[in-house]
Amino acid sequence: MFETLKKQPADKILQLMLMYADDPRDQKIDLGVGVYKNAEGVTPIMRAVKAAEKRIWDEQTTKTYTGLTGDSAFTGGMTRLLLADAVAPEAISAVATTGGTGAVRLGFELIQMMKPGGRIWISDPTWPNHIAILNYLGIEIKTYRYFDAETRGVDFDAMMEDLKGAEAGDAVLLHGCCHNPTGANLNMVQWQEVADLLNARRLLPMIDIAYQGFGDGLEEDAAGTRLIASSVPECLIASSCSKNFGIYRERTGMLMAISADTARKPLVLDTMATLNRLAYSFPPDHGARIVATILNDDALRADWMAELEEVRLSMLGLRQQLADELQRLTGSDRFAFLAGHRGMFSRLGVSPEIVERLRTDYGVYMVGDSRMNIAGLNSRTVPLLAQAIVDAGA
Ligand code: LMR
């Protein structure tokens, strides 16, 4: 039977991870997978995470199953972190998932269950795994233009024009903040226009928010999501704790379904719990318990927020340093957009040939569409990268 299997298309990001690991050069620079690294090139365990783990180790008395929806201390804490008081609690159904990817997958499955044969609009470009999962599930994909190759900002007019082609009942996938892969984000006026369009055309938004706290701050990064959640009758929100808590391998995420018709909550929650059961029964608990411990303790929460802010500011500093260095080397402002992008990623906007040259000649690893993980840099490697970008002909 196994001979009937077909080779699956490789994931571009994970493939790059392997290529980087195989490269023997000392000077290589990893700007591939979206993992934060500090100035020493280490992905540290955050202080509050270590403290929470110690507390859990001391106090936890059982490892028996949680519920299918996960621990309510986790879903409640995360809901407040994401939405504050933008939406009434009775409107929200939330389940813990296996990481942000699990939340995305569950959200897509829910959409498919609600509307078999329905369509989902995704930004062009988007995280490649969005496309892979949708293809796997056999959900029809429609794309809306998003990135302006000239300005390296959002091509908002094109986005709105394309979304006007959506039909009632279509779903629209939006990145809550820190757009992956471009780093270009909507402003609040644009979020409002998107909300108006969603309402006018009766579209279902699904927001993927995996980088809250990595852009302009915890509150600022959630503002677009809160605006949508409080403006439309129904929406889905997939969130991740991998990056902002630095607990990548613990696989900690959450899917929220919001309905202004609060009577829907029992059915929606039960369906999401069933989807968890069908996929893996109970969602993983350890990461969720760490997050719940931090969010529900004033001192740990304050320490986590302070460390997250250091991480955010260090990425902003690297962005500015890179933009300045490229300005100095080229004598032009054509890379100034790097300082304006937010989150871990920026799309440099160079050809695949230049991306390839950067990798083979300079040991610089970025995704083929020229997505760079800014957090893979440090103050020593920024000038090396800037020089390589210029020398490679960008
Ligand atoms: C990324 O985009 O690099 C991250 O979200 C990691 C992943 O799973 O692809």
Automatic annotation (TrEMBL):
Its EC number is 2.6.1.-. One of its GO terms (molecular function) is transaminase activity. Residues 27-389 form the Aminotransferase class I/classII large domain. Keywords: Aminotransferase, Pyridoxal phosphate, Transferase. Gene3D superfamilies: Aspartate Aminotransferase, domain 1, Type I PLP-dependent aspartate aminotransferase-like (Major domain). InterPro entries: Aminotransferase_I/II_large, Asp_trans, PyrdxlP-dep_Trfase, PyrdxlP-dep_Trfase_major, PyrdxlP-dep_Trfase_small. Its cofactor is pyridoxal 5'-phosphate. Homodimer. Belongs to the class-I pyridoxal-phosphate-dependent aminotransferase family. This is Amino acid aminotransferase. It comes from Pseudodonghicola flavimaris.
